[in-house]
DNA sequence: TACCGCTTGTGAACGCATGCACAAAGTCGG
DNA sequence: CCGACTTTGTGCATGCGTTCACAAGCGGTA
């Protein structure tokens, strides 16, 4: 379907249009995996690997080879039959599809235990997510630099987020403050939120929320231990587990 | 189907057997949501709420009411038609299904930025996940208490994990160390691993891995921004987003 | 050039998850 | 006791995601 790119376009507009028609159709689960492939491929590129087959890449990414090929097919046909994929080419196309061709400025709200860790973490800027603003309600923290960036007071959030074009807001406040912080981020024009507080956030339709809930992760693990233990009791088979299969915890966006 | 519990069992064995037959059939996605329901219900219980309808609970959990009822039906029929659910009853049944009737001892490996945050976090013990051991390779850290628990050297991991019956290992080391730490945890009998390092871990079939990859989360958000921006360009509709629908980042368990 | 072996890309089948819609089953008021 | 009203539990249809299997396509080789 579609494709046949590189025919005779002068501007890049038709090409991009085709890509974005496609982008809409990429399954959510595939997007998550594409990010993983990208990381693996980046690692390979750094190690000097220039070509890779779907089999090799799928091994490294921990997925089924057929699934990997299907995932890649969502973004276009950039492989060579009989040979495999060019690592650089794949990297650049995945980056383009994931919108990583431009930087996404990140603001962290709540500079406590977790906020400190996030602000100090060096892994984000390198991947196109520079942390450009930190916020907290605690007056003692305001002005203190964490990870090289001074903490601002939460009341400045709207002005600063607009000014620095923050596109991702990270919420690392205690649960009771999370919704209010979220509302402020939204009114500052932030359309993506990564929420660490164990709260279900209410947001408008045009805002995307993803949550990371460690307690939920542990409870899922707990469930599998329990299940495995029972299986071991019922039939005395070794208790084989399939691992979590691509599902995970969700983002819970309310839509009215 | 099934149910009709509380008939005439003397021991609890037949009841539990029925539950565990069921447990095997609970969809992974439903398990993740059950953990969310549990959190919401616990909050309600603390606020003195004793009964709740599927409509109310689904609102609070950010899911469709029908889905919520179906999720609850996987664990049994504990509601009262025309009335709703008893909060306490639901809490105890979800806890039982998730295996939260017993504590799950947690060990954190890699007491850097993130490890400190995790060790200091008070939210785990209260939810049945006491952190009982910390490990790091850095000799300067060994012996220093973090969150009330002294850091041990990584070489002691096997002995201590066995002794303290650690059931969940949390990996918060730099990526290159993650696989080796994982292997040590596995050989210490740990069957559940929560991995923060951006690496695909290779584990035996009987070990369950879940990963939390913040860069991947951000890239998924980035994808949606890009998609939304394009939609806005193509047709000038407001750019409505569906939010992430219960999917997320996965755990990538290799099976040979 | 023609053939061979290898790997991609994808049509099609399957299975799981979601959401609808309604019967069953309960409460409450009279 | 009965009938009206409420809410659960679930059969069923629909849609999404995964997996299989294989034709199409490419590089290498004679
Ligand atoms: N630390 C962890 O490992 C961990 C693990 C899982 C979940 N979480 C969750 O992450 C969140 C943060 O955890 P933490 O351990 O860093 O908590 P923390 O108490 O150490 O830090 C919270 C910070 O948020 C600030 N804050 C409070 N109200 C605010 C507001 N309205 N606006 C801006 N800042 C505000 C506080 O001043 C504090 O600095 C919590 O919701 C917690 O449940 C943390
Ligand atoms: N800090 C964050 O916010 C953040 C965000 C996303 C991902 N991560 C990931 O989490 C992991 C930890 O991040 P961090 O910022 O805490 O790193 P960090 O460098 O601050 O801490 C790593 C710790 O692990 C210890 N360590 C190294 N090798 C070890 C080994 N073999 N055994 C035991 N301990 C060992 C180090 O001594 C150090 O204390 C990394 O893989 C990072 O990519 C962190």
From TrEMBL, chains A, B:
Principal localization reads cytoplasm
Task: For the region Disordered, give the residue spans.
Answer: 1-20
Residue ranges annotated for the CoA-binding domain, each copy included = 99-200
Please verify whether the record's keywords include Cytoplasm.
yes
Q: Which UniProt keywords apply?
A: Cytoplasm, DNA-binding, NAD, Repressor, Transcription, Transcription regulation
The entry's DNA-binding region feature spans 36-75
The entry marks the following residues as binding NAD(+), namely: 110-115
Q: Which Gene Ontology cellular-component terms appear in the entry?
A: cytoplasm
Coiled-coil spans are none
Q: Which GO terms describe its biological process?
A: negative regulation of DNA-templated transcription; response to redox state
Q: Which GO terms describe its molecular function?
A: DNA binding; DNA-binding transcription factor activity
Q: Does the keyword Kinase apply?
A: no
The organism's superkingdom is given as Bacteria
Renumbered to this chain, the Polar residues biased-composition regions fall at 1-14
Q: Cite the InterPro entries for this sequence.
A: CoA-bd, NAD(P)-bd_dom_sf, Rex_actinobacterial-type, Rex_DNA-bd_C_dom, Tscrpt_rep_Rex, WH-like_DNA-bd_sf, WH_DNA-bd_sf
Q: Which Pfam families match?
A: CoA_binding, Put_DNA-bind_N
Q: Where in the cell is it found?
A: Cytoplasm
The record's note on quaternary structure and interaction partners says: Homodimer.
Q: Which family does it belong to?
A: Belongs to the transcriptional regulatory Rex family.
**What does this chain do?**
Modulates transcription in response to changes in cellular NADH/NAD(+) redox state.
Q: Which HAMAP family match?
A: Rex
Protein name per the record: Redox-sensing transcriptional repressor Rex
Q: Which organism is it from?
A: Lentzea albidocapillata subsp. violacea
